[in-house]
Amino acid sequence: MDANLIRDGLVFYLGLVALLTFHEFAHAWTAWKCGDDTARLQGRLSLNPLVHIDPIGTVLLPLVMIFASPSIGRFLVGWAKPVPFNPGNLNHRWRDEMLIAMAGPAMNVLLAVALVAFARVAVMFDSDVAVNLLLRMASLSLMLCFFNLIPIPPLDGSHVLRNLSGISYETYFNFSRFGFIAIILVLQIPLVREILGVLVGGTLGALIFCFHFPS
Predict the structure, then answer these.
(1) For this structure, is 24 an active site residue?
(2) Choosing from 24, 97, 170, 194, which is the catalytic residue?
(3) Is the confidence at residue 70, as pLDDT, over 70?
(4) The pTM is what?
């Protein structure tokens, strides 16, 4: 493989790990603010990537997607180790579970806004390399946001679905044991990838428009 591709792949992977770390930190911080300190006591209220790594979602799947082929590498998703919480400790159980689930995707949107803002500053300094990198990271952050809304365990959308449908925790966690297989299979469906691409592209385009990038 070309050395430049390896370098770009590693940079993109490190960006993914950083974005996932902030994503999981947001879950842990929200759970703590909602009255449950389970994640904090387990060391998950941290920006240390090592405490959030999932062997499949953070290591195996992303690296395969990056280095398997250039076409696959252009589409990158992943997930980290789910943040634990005790529903019995929450101040308002139904509402707080929804807030905890949505905290990760919301963090990814905030990060995308910040990255696009920095890219706009880089435009002012004619730094094309920085602009390209920052916009790619913003796109990746948005991809993580929309990807995590898919209602398959352990993704965040599955917690929302469980809350709305009333599925028991026992049933949910039984499904979660094999969720990563379902995720990998779903990602093979072209329509799913196309929808994610449209959502990411449309949102990124809207942010670029809002920050008045020169045409």
Answers:
(1) yes
(2) 24
(3) no
(4) 0.92
